[in-house]
Amino acid sequence: MQNRRTYEEINQKISSGRAVVLTASEVSELSKTLSPTEIFRKVDVVTTATFGPMCSSGMFINVGHTRPPMRMEQILLNQVPVYGGIAAVDAYIGATSESENRPGYGGAHVIEELIAGKEVEIDSLAKGTDCYPRKSFNGKISKHTVNEMILFNPRNAYQNYAAAVNTSDRTLYTYMGMLLPRLGNLTYSTSGELSPLLNDPWLRTIGVGTRIFLGGAQGFVTGRGTQFRTDVERNDHSIPLKNAATLAVTGNAKEMDTAYIRAAYFEKYGVSLFVGIGIPVPVLDEDMAARVSIRNEQIETSIADYASPAHEELGRVNYRQLQSGSLRLKGKKVRTAPMSSLPVARRIAGVLAEEIRQGKFFLTQPVEALA
Q: What is the mean pLDDT of residues 24-30?
């Protein structure tokens, strides 16, 4: 039997309904009794997924021309500031942009409402030019009236992320949630053995042009996410022990579903956007079969003390311990809680697997590597 298969062979099997597609959790369970060689022979595609807060997200909107035409320069959507320095009626709304008039409301909420088909108010000002004479506009827009809504997220799907604790005597309010004093809790943000970049730690199959599940629609990896790095310490299973690679991703937001794109507000920190991402990993050879067989107890991350300016590392922990609900740290039992939703990640992996089985989703070979 050949010890390698190609993207073309896998896509042919998808077309004919013969592809064997399992979720990463299912393969992790199989790996307890099957070798990578046996998994390679049995499985063609493994679906991975994550659903968590990804602050570095946003959406391009082309609202369409007014009459008379206007070059929109200062723009508010539902009183949330939007960047208008692109072109006449193009705008970019960042997920973390916040309204000055509505505490706890921001760009993520506007994005979710637009995807849901709701109307949002637009206010804009301009200096006026000969070709764009209009100087002000107030009205309503929705996904049914604008030309384009393109989700473009500069940094999503961290390969791994340090768990967070607080050794100080006061509560800390962070993007990792509320951290209670004196090691009162620990929060973490990765879906463990289901997480996309942990199933392909050297990014052999995930690169520019990879087709992905993004917010309920089909999207693509456009390149390295911001703060991308691979020069970090790894364990014996090639898993980075702290923040590492990230992805820049894009997709048609008009086709997305608010089941997989949700706004959130973190007390005394700000607004963020929960983004659902699913990535199919082709089992090209036995090495990839071994990578997608990774289990929670084999995936480690560092524990960072957010009371320290440099986020001092207090130790390491694996995802089996994290998902158990508690662990012992510095002689104390510490409660653990996820920032990401494992049930939704499991749902995404299952939906993606079914779309592939039904021939609705095909794999794309990256046109350029990220690492």
A: 98
